[in-house]
C-alpha cells in the first residue's frame, strides 16, 4: 500500500470519535516496532519524524525505510514531519514523498503564524500533502525545541477559529496543559478549553506531549474530539530501559541484535497499549 495523506486518516477518526497515534520514529527499531504493532492491531497509523530525527537518520533513509515498511502492510499509513520549523526542511519533506507536514509557527505572533502557515498550506495542498499547525505554545522539550514553562501558553478558542479559517490547515495542535518529554508535576488538562475549541472547529485536533498524560485523561480528550495523539518519550523510555536491563545483567553482551531486538519488542508492546487507549484498533 502507498502512503496516504494524513487528512484522510484524521477525517475518518473525527467522524467516528477515535484518535490515531502520531508515533515518532528515531531509528529502524522504532519504525518496525511501531508499524508491526499497528498492523497486528489493524489500526491506521501516522509515522512521524522530527527535524532532529531526519538529521540523525538521513532523509533518504527515512523515506526508503518507511516505504519498505509500508509495502509490507495493508493498514493506512501517513508519513508526517513533526514540528517542522525550517521552510527548506518542510519543502524537502514534501519533495521527498512525505504525505503530511507540520509547520510549528507557535512561537510567532498570531498574524505572522497565519501568514507563514498559509504559505506552507499553499505549497503542500498543491501536491495533496496534509498540513498540521500549532497555536498556543506547548511546554517541555522535544529534540532541539524547548519551551520554558513560563513561556508556554494555552490556545485561545477565538484565535483558533480565526487561524483555521485564514490558513486552511487540515489539523490543529492545541495547547491545553500537556508538555513534551518527562513531566515535572502532574499534568492538568483544560478540558473546558478543549470543548470550546472543538465546538467552534469541528475538525481534527491534535494532542502533543501525551507520553506522561494519565490514561483516563487521554481517553477523555479523545472522546471530546482529539483525533491525533503524539507519543515519543514513552517509546524512547521503554526501548532504553530494556537495553539497559539487558546490558546490566549481561555485561559481556556485544551483539546489538541481542539488545536492540528486545528493545524493539518493548516499543511494539507499548504501541499496542497506546492504540487500545486511542480506540483506533480495528479501524484500518
Ligand atoms: P512526548 O515526547 O512527550 O511523547 O511528545 C511527543 C510529541 O508531542 C511529538 O510532537
Task: Give your account of this protein's structure.
The structure is a single chain. The chain is of the alpha/beta class and 284 residues long. It has a single domain, classed as Alpha-Beta Barrel (TIM Barrel), CATH 3.20.20.70. The protein is built from eleven helices and eleven strands. The strands form two sheets. An eight-stranded parallel beta barrel has the order 1-2-3-4-5-8-10-11, surrounded by ten helices. The model has no long low-confidence stretch (mean pLDDT 95).
Write the layout of secondary structure elements.
Elements: H1 6-16, E1 20-24, H2 28-41, E2 45-50, H3 51-57, H4 59-71, E3 77-84, H5 87-95, E4 100-103, H6 110-125, E5 130-135, E6 139-142, E7 145-147, H7 157-167, E8 171-174, E9 179-180, H8 191-200, E10 205-207, H9 215-223, E11 226-231, H10 233-249, H11 256-278
Helix pairs in contact: 2-4, 2-11, 6-7, 7-8, 10-11
Q: What gyration radius follows from the Cα positions, in whole Å?
A: 18 Å
By CATH, the architecture is named Alpha-Beta Barrel
- Poorly predicted sequence stretches spanning 5 or more consecutive residues: none
What percentage of the residues does DSSP assign to strands (E)? Answer: 15-25%
Superfamily at the CATH H level? Aldolase class I
Q: Note the gap between the termini.
A: 12 Å
What is the H-and-E element order? HEHEHHEHEHEEEHEEHEHEHH
Task: Note the main sheet.
Answer: 8 strands, parallel, barrel
Helix residue percentage: 40-55%
- Overall geometric form: globular
Question: What name does CATH use for the topology?
Answer: TIM Barrel
The assigned structural class equals alpha/beta
**How many distinct domains?**
1
Total helical elements: 11
Which hetero compounds are present in the coordinates? 1,3-dihydroxyacetonephosphate
Amino acid at each position: 500500500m502507498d502512503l496516504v495523506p494524513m487528512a484522510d486518516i484524521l477525517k475518518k477518526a473525527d467522524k467516528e470519535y477515535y484518535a490515531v497515534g502520531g508515533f515518532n520514529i528515531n531509528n529502524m527499531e522504532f519504525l518496525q516496532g511501531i508499524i508491526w504493532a499497528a498492523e497486528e492491531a489493524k489500526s491506521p497509523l501516522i509515522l512521524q519524524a522530527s527535524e532532529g530525527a531526519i538529521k540523525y537518520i538521513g532523509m533518504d533513509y527515512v523515506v526508503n525505510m518507511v516505504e519498505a515498511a509500508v509495502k509490507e502492510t495493508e493498514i493506512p499509513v501517513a508519513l508526517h514531519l513533526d514540528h517542522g520549523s525550517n521552510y527548506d526542511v518542510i519543502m524537502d519533506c514534501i519533495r521527498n514523498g512525505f504525505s503530511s507536514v507540520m509547520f510549528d509557527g507557535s512561537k510567532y505572533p498570531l498574524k505572522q503564524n497565519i501568514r507563514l502557515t498559509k504559505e506552507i498550506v499553499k505549497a503542500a495542498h498543491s501536491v495533496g500533502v496534509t498540513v498540521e499547525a500549532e497555536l498556543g505554545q506547548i511546554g517541555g522539550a522535544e529534540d532541539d525545541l524547548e519551551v520554558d514553562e513560563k513561556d508556554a501558553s494555552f490556545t485561545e478558542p477565538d484565535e483558533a477559529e480565526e487561524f483555521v479559517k485564514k490558513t486552511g490547515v487540515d489539523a490543529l495542535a492545541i495547547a491545553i496543559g500537556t508538555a513534551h518529554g518527562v513531566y515535572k508535576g502532574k499534568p492538568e488538562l483544560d478540558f473546558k478549553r478543549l470543548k470550546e475549541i472543538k465546538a467552534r472547529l469541528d475538525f481534527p485536533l491534535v494532542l502533543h506531549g501525551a507520553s506522561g498524560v494519565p490514561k483516563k485523561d487521554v481517553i477523555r480528550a479523545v472522546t471530546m474530539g482529539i483525533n491525533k495523539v503524539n507519543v515519543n518519550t514513552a517509546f524512547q523510555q521503554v526501548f532504553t530501559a530494556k537495553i539497559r536491563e539487558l546490558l546490566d545483567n549481561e555485561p559481556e553482551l556485544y551483539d546489538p541484535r541481542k539488545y536492540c531486538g528486545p528493545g524493539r519488542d518493548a516499543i511494539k508492546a507499548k504501541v499496542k497499549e497506546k492504540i487500545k487507549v486511542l480506540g483506533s484498533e480495528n479501524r484500518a
